Amino acid sequence: MISDAPVLQQSSEPAESAGAASRLSRHARPVLGLLLPVILALGWELVVWSGWSNGRLVPPPSRVFATIADLARSGELLRHIAATLWRVGLGFAFGVVAGTVLGAISGYWSLARRLLDPTVQALRAIPSLAWVPLFILWLGIFETSKIALIAVGVFFPVYLGVMGAILSVDRKIVEVGRTFRLSGFAMIRRILLPAVLPAYVVSLRVGLGLGWMFVVAAELIGASEGLGYLLLDGQQLGKPAQILAAIVIFAILGKLTDWLIEVAAAPFLRWQDAFGRAKGA
Amino acid sequence: MLALDRVSKTYPNGVEALARFSAEIRQGEIIAIIGGSGCGKSTLLRAIAGLDRASSGTVTLDSEAIASPHAKIGIIFQEPRLLPWLSVADNIGFGIAELPAAERRDKVARALARVGLADKAQAWPRELSGGQAQRVAIARALVPQPEVLLLDEPFSALDAFTRRDLQDHLLDLWADTRPTLILVTHDVDEAVVLADRVLVMRPRPGRLFDQIEINLTRPRDRNSPLFENFKRSVLTSLDRSLDRNVPDRDATQGPGQAMWW
What we know:
- The structure holds two protein chains of two kinds.
- Chain A is an all-alpha fold.
- Chain A folds into two domains: 1-53; 61-279, MetI-like (MetI-like fold, Orthogonal Bundle), CATH 1.10.3720.
- Chain A has helices spanning 5-49, 61-73, 76-108, 110-124, 132-139, 143-167, 171-179, 184-221, 227-236, 240-265, 275-279.
- Chain A is globular.
- The relative contact order of chain A is 0.10.
- Chain B is an alpha/beta fold.
- Chain B has a domain at 2-81 and 147-241: 3-Layer(aba) Sandwich (Rossmann fold), CATH 3.40.50.300.
- Chain B contains seven helices and ten strands.
- In chain B, the strands form two sheets. Chain B has a six-stranded mixed sheet with strand order 6-7-8-3-9-10, sandwiched between helices. In chain B, strands 2-1-4-5 form a four-stranded antiparallel sheet, with helices on one face.
- The radius of gyration of chain B is 19 Å and the shape is globular.
- The chains are: A mainly alpha, B alpha/beta.
- Chain B: Involved in beta-(1-->2)glucan export. Transmembrane domains (TMD) form a pore in the inner membrane and the ATP-binding domain (NBD) is responsible for energy generation.
- Chain B: Belongs to the ABC transporter superfamily.
- Chain B: It comes from Bradyrhizobium zhengyangense.
- Chain B: Residues 2-228 form the ABC transporter domain.
- Chain B: Pfam families: ABC_tran.
């Protein structure tokens, strides 16, 4: 150990300068992604400011942000965000639970897959929005039907993701479990679960994306609060700034919740030897 | 003692992979199984491991019939098959999860040191070279102290230098507890370096063709004329095993071994 020390020190110097360079580029990378939208926004701001356009149908960023600030000040923004987040959260939770359980059953037992999967695939072929009238008849026009719609949207990608992940677990790794005589439950916990986790996280993210899509659909159909209601209200009252404000907030919330899943899963996926990791993306 | 009695395997598609293979293997013996491709070497090994069931015939270890994976039988595959989500140390401790944590840690640490990877305990499998990964696989198989260790072409994916290194290392580890080793290989050199006895198989259907005792003391000198002699006799036997005009020998010892036709 002691004899190693000077060697280590020697080699750490060029490594450090290389580290500084990569640290710089690590900070530069997100900035690079912001370049295009910021230039476009500033450009449009300039166009409206200089009088080339009145910006009535396409309001400049300053007016959109002013709208957001107004909504925030009156406390309305928070109310709308809370309503939408609540619906997405609840629908996502139901969809994930159902998708995970049924996906796991279909993936693990081939008999269950033969019984269950054709039906699920047939239901999947129905455009989910086609359920809306039925859900409203069955569940009323209030929260239940909205949450059900979101849950349906989340269910399918999660179900498919879990089932596909289980079916594609490497036989060779399962055999390692068998040689160590893992029981059914231990096999699930120690081999299958960690093996499917990367694909599961991806399916959760896809599911969440669909959840955000369907909450808009649900709130456009009939709601008195929520970001989707802001969209509709903006359209009916001719307030494009309010529509854009709601869109911006959708973008922020969508990105934020997606990032939360990513961050929550990251500690469990550090082992991955993947293309994306090598690129540092 | 591991006894194989007329072990046969016919796959559902009708391919007869293994026909009435019989052998008796003493505790602590090192056996190399060699033969042309499709001679049922791996099929035989999987039957002994209890991963596949023989269509007929029996595998018994100390008079206990083997039909599913057994605690006293370990296996090392051609690929390391490490679990990518476990650190090197956790991979090695995979088979002894039922032991108390302190004892497990102790055994893992000793095994890590024994295979020369003490500094890699917390590394991920992806960070290992092919040779290091296979050493982890060997440690993982040896930590539960099996009485029989099966090796399915364990070094065939490695470069020549690493392969030699690991062969010596394997012998070194074997000397600790002297488990029975059954090694499937393509490599005549490897068979003669490691084995007390080389079983030559012939294909279609896979069956025992010849056995050659390697009466050389260890450590073996790969350059000695005696070593060369043994290599030549294994090679000759292999050549004959692939020649359709050569009849099966009936001189093989052991009960039920001959008369397969």
